[in-house]
Amino acid sequence: MTSVAGAPGTADSAGSPEPVGERRFSETLHFARRNPKLLIGLGIVLTFLLLGIIGPFFIGHDPNEYVGPQTQPPSGEYWFGTTTFGQDIWAQFVYGLRSTFLIGVFGGGVAFVIGTAVGFVAGYKGGIIDEILNMITNVVLVLPAMVVLIVAIAYLEARGLFVQGLFIGLTSWPWAARAVRSQALSLATRDYVDLARLSGRRTWKIITTEIAPNMSSYLVMSFILLFGGAILIAAGLDFIGLGPAGGVSLGLMLQSASQWSALQLSMWWWFIPPGLGITAIVGSLYILNVGLDEVFNPKLREL
């Protein structure tokens, strides 16, 4: 007996329309898998991240410990050679990667939280609140951030990793705030936002449930840029001797190599690995960001 087409319970589930959210996700995933910039950038970043997380567990000594002969080039025993004091450069590189990602996540995260909060409130509220927040943003934006960081960190007795990240975040948020504000200003006039406002929902609820989800791709890319910027700023501070006291980072490796004349002594294995490490990580983050932009922006997608 043939079932009647369209009868309750007899419809083919395969013919039912796919939910909009799932369709968008599958479409984004489809283009993400086929974007070489995204895959290359993400692959390099994840490789360095895993090395920084897992690598230290396979090193049986402190990175600043004098463990071998001095000024030894790379070998089977010391993969990246040793310093003029007999320190293992491979151990310093692996531990330095961990510090690099920590400072990027923390410094970039602080800047992201402050910037997005200021941008959302200013863009949604408008009026006098927007003017005040925009004025504060412009004041911080015109301050010479590196000079402020140098003065602030130089006079701190404790120069830890998180203190450095905090100051980087406090001076890096303005451009993110201005970018988020411009997007929020546009979205705040949409019909669904007006409807949520008329229904009596609170400001933070409207921002987090109506405005922010429609900017999710933009927010992800903003965080990646802040992440890479925090790494570069931290490397610059480390190189001029304002890094974490007693710590290990790629920037501090460059500072030590410069201080003890590694270039003049032709000890290329001392300064090339940390320099290439910083360049590869930050460069891959920007390549990853370009790839994400091509995936999220339909006009830039390659079929």
From TrEMBL:
It is a multi-pass membrane protein. The keyword Ion transport does not apply. The chain crosses the membrane at residues 38-59, 101-124, 136-155, 161-180, 223-247, 267-292. Its main location: membrane. Gene3D superfamilies: MetI-like (1.10.3720.10). CDD domains: TM_PBP2. Belongs to the binding-protein-dependent transport system permease family. Keywords: Cell membrane, Membrane, Transmembrane, Transmembrane helix, Transport. GO terms for molecular function: dipeptide transmembrane transporter activity. InterPro entries: BP-dependent_transpt_permease, MetI-like, MetI-like_sf. Residues 97-289 form the ABC transmembrane type-1 domain. It holds the Pfam family BPD_transp_1. It is found in: Cell membrane. This is Peptide/nickel transport system permease protein.
